[in-house]
Amino acid sequence: xxxTASAIKRTKKTKLQTSVNKIRKGKxxxxxxxxxNLIAAGKAKEAKDFFSQFNSQLMKIAKTGxxxxxxxxxxxxxxxxxxxxxxx
Length: 88
Prior knowledge:
The chain is mostly helical. Helices cover 88% and strands 0% of the residues. It contains 3 helices and no strands.
């Protein structure tokens, strides 16, 4: 147990930030799952319409540092290629 005022405040901030990070990571995972489901179903039009929202959501999460920007850009690139393959 923390026994100084600053340590007590820090533990409260850490708990709050941990919950925020879990929410953000959950949004990240659900966004990827939603796009994967569209691609697996072969719904090219819906996937293309959702792609801008997908890109925006992932970049918002990447700028907070939860997921590395390079990882996010790689995922966006690979999803983009998969959408192109569905069309043809």
